[in-house]
From TrEMBL:
<dbReference type="InterPro" id="IPR024169">
    <property type="entry name" value="SP_NH2Trfase/AEP_transaminase"/>
</dbReference>
<dbReference type="GO" id="GO:0008453">
    <property type="term" value="F:alanine-glyoxylate transaminase activity"/>
</dbReference>
<dbReference type="InterPro" id="IPR000192">
    <property type="entry name" value="Aminotrans_V_dom"/>
</dbReference>
<keyword id="KW-0032">Aminotransferase</keyword>
<keyword id="KW-0808">Transferase</keyword>
<dbReference type="GO" id="GO:0004760">
    <property type="term" value="F:L-serine-pyruvate transaminase activity"/>
</dbReference>
<keyword id="KW-0663">Pyridoxal phosphate</keyword>
<feature type="binding site">
    <location>
        <position position="347"/>
    </location>
    <ligand>
        <name>substrate</name>
    </ligand>
</feature>
<feature type="modified residue" description="N6-(pyridoxal phosphate)lysine">
    <location>
        <position position="198"/>
    </location>
</feature>
<comment type="similarity">
    <text>Belongs to the class-V pyridoxal-phosphate-dependent aminotransferase family.</text>
</comment>
<dbReference type="InterPro" id="IPR015422">
    <property type="entry name" value="PyrdxlP-dep_Trfase_small"/>
</dbReference>
<feature type="domain" description="Aminotransferase class V">
    <location>
        <begin position="36"/>
        <end position="339"/>
    </location>
</feature>
<keyword id="KW-0670">Pyruvate</keyword>
<dbReference type="InterPro" id="IPR015424">
    <property type="entry name" value="PyrdxlP-dep_Trfase"/>
</dbReference>
<dbReference type="GO" id="GO:0019265">
    <property type="term" value="P:glycine biosynthetic process, by transamination of glyoxylate"/>
</dbReference>
<dbReference type="InterPro" id="IPR015421">
    <property type="entry name" value="PyrdxlP-dep_Trfase_major"/>
</dbReference>
<dbReference type="InterPro" id="IPR020578">
    <property type="entry name" value="Aminotrans_V_PyrdxlP_BS"/>
</dbReference>
Amino acid sequence: MAIKSFHPPQRILMGPGPSDVSPRVLEAMSRPTLGHLDPVFVSMMDEMKELLKYAFQTKNELTMPVSAPGSAGMETCFVNLVEPGDKVIVCQNGVFGGRMKENVERCGGIAVMVQDDWGRAVDLQKVEDALKANPDTKVVAFVHAETSTGAQSDAKNLVALAHKHGCLTIVDAVTSLAGSPLKVDEWAIDAIYSGTQKCLSCTPGLSPVSFGERALEKIKNRKNKVQSWFLDLNLVMSYWGGSTKRAYHHTAPINSLYGLHEALVILQEEGLENSWARHQKNHLALRAGLEAMGLNFVVPESERLPQLNALTIPEGVDDALVRATLLNDYQLEIGAGLGVMAGKVWRIGLMGHASNKRNILVCLGALDDVLGRVKAPVQLGVAVAAAQKVLEN
């Protein structure tokens, strides 16, 4: 059988990620490949560090993209900051808090779990109680924007609480970076990781991270060697370092980094606060349409991510059938529920390049049609007008 070139269909990506990639990013990735130690490429790496510092709102010198997806950014934080026997308080209010627990245990650490209902923010009082009960805790880890539920936790006060008890913090910002207010230096976050495929509108495969001085102190004074060679920051720092000569560590994903550079230039052009405001306004328009139909959000408004909207599937509606029909008839992807929410919720993303008026109206119109076809108990013919009213104000 002769296999031919692969040409994917053009989809509208409104799931939990990846989001639609800006054409400018795709064009940037098609540019000529350079050697990863070429002086011109090294110069671009320096620019990227500055652009990432802007996105994270930090002056941390160790701010860079890990050459792998967001999960590797998570692992970078844990393998460098958690040693065997270290006690780590892990806040879980969705799928990704569970992955943090797995990382702690694989590092030989002891995970103390603080559990909250899926779809709710992390409870500050529960974390304080856990810190008082475990005074030997070294690290507090939590998800700022829980992708599995659309809940957003109070990062600023969680970090302040951890520091009050002498702990470092590890923060998952995979879905919040560039979509919701996130201020690494102002909130004094010690270690943070994100992904490129959400609100940055880049392709998947890179994980921006940033480490503050307290975290670097811990890394430089470890008793044990970091268990991962590839993710050992003591080694990676020599490649992503400052003005000193860069040492070979691994072959960076050159063209993917071109794409991230362009995505960050686009963010700089729009302005970070404007990006946050755009995501919020578009959420309000989408919310108006969905609520006009009679669909219910999982997360209370005060704890809700604007860029990821989790909705309860109406009674008697076939989850998989609706999503498949949207994909086949409208080329529109929305997300299914994960874990305990599988089959119970839809997740509609409004992230980065995909967070725009056209996508909101297409999504609402498509849902109106498909839910009407399956005779869902919703109000038809009202969603688009409700959203337009918000968009026009």
